[in-house]
Every structure is written in structure tokens, then in C-alpha cells.
Amino acid sequence: MGCTLYGPHVVLLALLLSFSFSLSYHRPPSRATLSIPAPQDTDGLTPQQVHVSLVGDNKMRITWITENEAPSTVDYGTSSRTYTSSATGSVTSYSFLLYTSGHIHDVIIGPLSPSTVYYYRCSSNSAYEFSFKTPPSKLPLKFAIVGDLGQTGWTNSTLQHLGGSDYDVLLLPGDLSYADLDQPLWDSYGRLIEPFASSRPWMVTEGNHEIEKLPPMESSPFKSYNARWRMPYDISASDSNLYYSFDVAGGVVHVLMLGSYTDFDSSSAQFKWLMADLDKIDRKQTPWLLALIHAPWYNSNEAHQGDGEDMRKSMENLLYQYKVDVVFAGHVHAYERFTRVYDNSKDGCGPMHVTIGDGGNREGLANKFLDPQPEISVFREASFGHGEFLVVNETHAHWTWHRNDDDEQVMADQVWVTTLISQTTCKNKTTK
Prior knowledge:
Residues 350-410 form the Purple acid phosphatase C-terminal domain. The chain is α+β, with helices and mostly antiparallel strands.
């Protein structure tokens, strides 16, 4: 692995973007940005940047890139090198300024059995075999959660820790590659995470670093993100890849992936979709309800104060009425856990809010917190790390946050979480 520095032209372009960067605090330097080249033994037909994501309750989307034209085919089975099934999908590409992507392949495979390891190859390339494990159809279920991942030395440390956690599904609340217009960094990011994203489903939503809008040459935001990270939005009746929902563990857990950088007011398509999606949920069958956003609604760090306030004012009441249990956010490059909260006050019937924008970004940590610490803020620390949310049964889950301390994984915060639907004091809120 080598290091690459951003050229002055990329820095200038980035300054032109409205990414909501805050200049009111000092970010300490992070580790250098990594540049992950293609392996030397690859050719134009070699599958690269392989990652998988959930589609419905028993299917998986396989996404990969080849430099040259190759079949959009996945062969798979439950034994290594023995492929009993095959599926064919589609291929696309995109251009961004002077950059043209490779061939982006998208194939949905299934039906698949739960808690099963599948071996697969892409584009019928027998030289490269991958494998993934499907999530269980019932509890317990473990989520790994990491935001603002980037591709630095700290990112690599976080990924190694994630790889040892034996999670079932990874949730990423925005800011993936930090390409920021420099499109080859998307390819480098895909290679960096491939060993992990090809073996467990990664479910993501967009952050401000995915906008990549540069009028008048590039006037459409999220071009690279939408091309490379297609999520199952259509399965949940969403009309946009920027917000969607999905079920896991046989429908016991419902996850809302919301878009902080698309319209969210009460007249917007996202708001109307969210209201309809929540109204479909039977909480007797789906006791756990989680939500992911990028810009946090609650934040006691000096960084990005108020960035999520408009979205909070628009959507918080909906999440409160339908008893969303936990809201995970990124954006602020630190860790912070709040108590259950609603409308800026402690509320035992509101969601627990967690900011986990500390995956390993190149901008450094947000290490200045407001003083005194607000009553609703329980634990906060400016360190890189990741979180794990273990849903033990229909009423209880265990949340842990693992800091990177000199590359050693240290569990620094933990709490047991009880579903709101099981608490009699919250029964007067709207539910089905």
C-alpha cells in the first residue's frame, strides 16, 4: 500500500462544494490517505471491488467492477469451487469530468438459505473465488455500525477490528470513500474494503461527501454513489436510492436508511415514503425499529452544530410516534451516545441517539465538545472506532462502542437497550 496526496486542483474543486464543512474547530491530523492499486496479477477481466448487499429476505446483490467487458454472471453454491446455481444481471458505467469508470456489474442471486456460507465467482472467472455468510432468519443478530469510514491508516485498523467481530450485517450512515471528486479514490476504496464487503452484506446511506456536485460540468449529485452502491430501495417502495428500508431476522428488525441530503420536508417524496413505510409495520411482528441518518439530530460537539436540525424538525415526530428505538448518525468525527430523547429533552419514549462518525476519515477527529456536557449526552469521546448492536431477543439488545487505541480494540462504552414497544409507559403513542 502506498500513500497519495490530493493535488491542488482537487482541493480547489472541493472548496467549491457545499459540503457543510465546519471551520470553527481544529481537526487534528489523521493518518495518511491510502492508495490501493489493483493487484499486479489482474487483467481487464478480473473482478474487483466486490461487495454484497441484502435484497429482500432471501436474496443478495453482488456488485463488482471489471476494466474490460465481461459477463454479468455470478455462479454460486454452498461448497467451494462447486457452483450449483447461476444468475445474470446488468452492467453500467459512468463518466465524471475526464474520468470513466470500469464496467459496474450488478447481479441478484437467490433464494438463499439463512445462516449459510455461500461461495461464488464473478464473471465466470475461476481464478477468484469469494464467499459470504447470509444473516440468520431469527435472533440473535449482530449489526456492525461505522460511519465516515474513508480510507486511511485508521480506516484499515477499524476494518481489521470489524473483521474479527463476526457481525451479520454492516450499517454505514454515510461518507464512504471521501473521493470528493477524485474518482480513482472510489476505486481505491472499493479495493480496500473488498475483503470485508464481499463476505458480509453492507447496507449504506449517503453522506455529504457523496454529493460530488460541480456545476456546470457535473450538475447531478450522487452520480458515483448511485452507480457504485445501489441499495434495494425499490423493494421498500422508495423512488430513490438515497432512502429505503429493509428487514432482517425474519422481519423482527426493521431498518430505516434515511437521506440527510435530499428533500425531507413534509411535502417531500421522502417524508411521504417514510410515513407510508412506518404505517405498514406491525410492531407485534417487528418489535425492533432502527433508523440511520448522516447529520445527527443531537450533537454536543462544536463540529457541525445544527447541521441536522431542519431534518429533525421535519421528521422527529414521525419517528417518535412510531417508537423508533435507536437512531444512528455519522458526520461528526467523534463518538457520542445520548439518552432516549425527544424535542431536545429526556424522554423515555423517544429513540436513543448515537453518533458514530469515527470510522477513520482523512479529516481527523472532532475533539472539541461543548462545556458543560448536556444532560441528554451520556458518553462522548473523540476517538476512531466502531459500534456493535447485538439484538439478543425481541425485547433486549446490547450496544457496545469499540475505540481504536494504538490499533488495539478497546470496548469503551456499552448499554443494554429495551424495545419501546415492550414498555407499558409508552403505550399511548401511535403504533400498529
